[in-house]
Amino acid sequence: MPRVPIGTILLLIVSLLIYFGVAQRVLDRLRLSDKAALGAIAALIIGGFINIPLPGGPSIEASLNVGGGIVPLFLSGYLLTKTTNIERLRAAAGIIATATAIYLAGLFLEAEPEAMAIDPLYLYPLVGGVIAYLIGRSRRGAFIAATMGILLFDIVSYLRIMLLGIPGSVLIGGGGAFDAIIVAGILAVVLAEFIGETRERLQGGPTERGKAPALLKRLRPLSPKQQKEGDQNE
After folding, report:
1. How many CA atoms lie within 13 A of 154 on its CB side?
2. What are phi and psi of 68, to 5 degrees?
3. Do residues 177 and 150 make contact, with C-beta atoms less than 8 angstroms apart?
4. Which residue among 62, 73, 88, 97 has its CA within the 20 to 30 Å range from the CA of 143?
5. Distances (CA, A) of 181 to 119, 175, 186, 202
6. Of 191, 177, 119, which Cα lies nearest the Cα of 148?
7. Shortest CA distance to 36 belongs to which of 84, 136, 28?
8. What is the pLDDT of residues 70-93, one digit of tens each?
9. Using CA atoms, how far apart are residues 167 and 47, in angstroms rounded to an integer?
10. Least confident of 56-60, 153-157, 159-163
């Protein structure tokens, strides 16, 4: 019985959360509608079964996975159009930082494989997701940094193999990379949502909806600086 990729399982879980309206707040912050989000998830899953051949070599077989390579690229490109200039700078820095962190994690795995307490398959997206959030900060910036950072690492690995003529096969955005991209993207957004919500509450942020009038009296109004920070953290 073939193994169902963890990335696909997570996408199905997220689609259920969207269908039942649980993820509406996150989608609003990402500037995505329910239909757009479900369409993107469907494209990721279906595209995960489609590979496009790439130039290889005498002993190199290379291809690009549509679900893990092309779809995240277009989705991140769309989200970039919804970001501010500072978010774009953070996302760009996050992409480079995420790819670098994964590269360094790979060096550690090669040097100290016996020191690993978790499967390397999960280390890359965990490292990528955390670094992407720390640099990207906002929901959109964190998602872009996480997914594009891992994809950048995959592309650089492909170019390295081509330049050095290392025999083998390369699947950009596919296999373990597909799972890593999905896990890292979801983790980065979850961290941004959880920490962003916590910060808003600590700052007396926008928590008025559904609250009793007696509780609202205790909320402190946001200063213009805090309101600007809240917009950038969406």
Report:
1. 29
2. -95, -10
3. yes
4. 62
5. 16, 10, 9, 31
6. 177
7. 28
8. 999 999 999 999 888 999 999 999
9. 26
10. 56-60
